[in-house]
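Archive maintenance. Older records in this collection stored only the sequence; we are now back-filling the structure field for every entry so that each record is complete. The fields below show one back-filled record exactly as it appears after the update. Entries are processed alphabetically, and Tryptophan 2,3-dioxygenase is next in the queue.

ARCHIVE ENTRY
Title: Tryptophan 2,3-dioxygenase
Organism field: Jeotgalibacillus alimentarius
Length field: 272
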Amino acid sequence: MSDQKVYTDFKDDMTYADYLSLDSLLSSQNRLSGHHDEMLFIVIHQVSELWMKLIIHEIQAACQSLKENQFEPAFKQLARVSKIQEQIIKAWDVLATMTPSEYIEFRDSLGKASGFQSYQYRLIEFSLGYKIPHILKIYKQDQEVFNMLEKAYHSKGLYDIAIEKLAEAGFEIPDEVLNRDFSNPYQKNTEVKAAWSEVYKDSQTYWTLYQLAEKLVDLEDWHQQWRFRHMKTVERIIGFKKGTGGSSGVNYLKSVLDSYFFPELWDLRTEL
Ligand code: HEM
Ligand SMILES: N[C@@H](CC(=O)c1ccccc1NC=O)C(=O)O
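Back-filled structure field:
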């Protein structure tokens, strides 16, 4: 979280390991059970968290670029996010080499810890506009994380900024959409749908918004594929056991697959 600091005291004799903080990075795989496969489990999670860090960095940059009408840099940043999403989806293939009996041998040592508590994952979902009431209470114990997430929860998401771009291009977008309470989940809107439909029907005129829309669809599509692979990998490894985080497990993970982040961008496809 404290990565805002810029280091200026470069050393002449700086090494590869110094630069990458390899000492701390490579001494952070602490297997509680000592089980062989717990190494795989830890590394997969740490790699996913590192990629999530970069996703957040790029989404924040893309939001800023869009606010400044710098569309080309925003497209490059969003395209990078999609490439990372592809990477973390592939990581499920590695985790799926672990069998149910191998996992069950060290599952108890995880206690009540769960991916449920990944605050970087929440930051990503908030930026995609997926905000569920009561989610913040999971983070009550850690005031610093809680404050950071609360701020993100009340902020505009990527889609809110994209809709502002529609308004700036001259489309009639109601005030109740532009000035909505951003902590509420986004509700689909007829005027927004009409605007995006026009963008798709006349893509030559609205080429920039058209590209933006497709980048957003990429992000949502990949995110849902990540959720699906997570759900299926969990079913493959623990079946329908309850989750360590207290949820019903696979059925909970299936239920989140029903949500849409950018609903109009999907709805319009039926009518084009
Ligand atoms: C053996 C591997 C895994 C199993 C059995 C598993 C199981 C589960 C279960 C059952 C849940 C629901 C919450 C709960 O009750 O615990 C969950 C949530 C979650 N897991 Fe995993 N998981 C695995 C691997 C991973 C990996 C590699 C990641 C990558 C970071 C991950 C990230 C998450 C996230 C972000 C959630 C919250 C999802 C949401 O609330 O929509 N999980 N996991
Ligand atoms: N929820 C998992 C446990 C689990 O997967 C996990 C435990 C600690 C840290 C990260 C985890 N990953 C994803 O939920 C389970 O019920 O087996």
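Update note: The CA atoms of residues 55 and 81 lie 5 Å apart. The chain has one domain: 42-271.
Entry marked complete.
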